[in-house]
Please model this.
Amino acid sequence: MQDEQIDAMAKLLKSMSHPIRLKILCLLQDKELSVGEIRAQVKTTNANISQHLNILRGQGIIDFRKDANFIYNRISDRRILELIKKMHNLFCPSL
Model:
């Protein structure tokens, strides 16, 4: 692996490693969710959710679409879906 690839992977993993962002990604692995739906499940403020979603968007991990007054988020990188599923199998095998 080249240093640039290692740096890119480290930056991506750092973006995912926060507990709230990891929970958001787990929620988004099967479907897209509105910001309000994410906030209700993560149980934090709109401002906090927005901050974490912006970090994930900035890394290209998630994308969004607007529908009237709602913003729906989804995982945009298939590799992230594979990684989340693999982590789930490794760390939560009984669930």
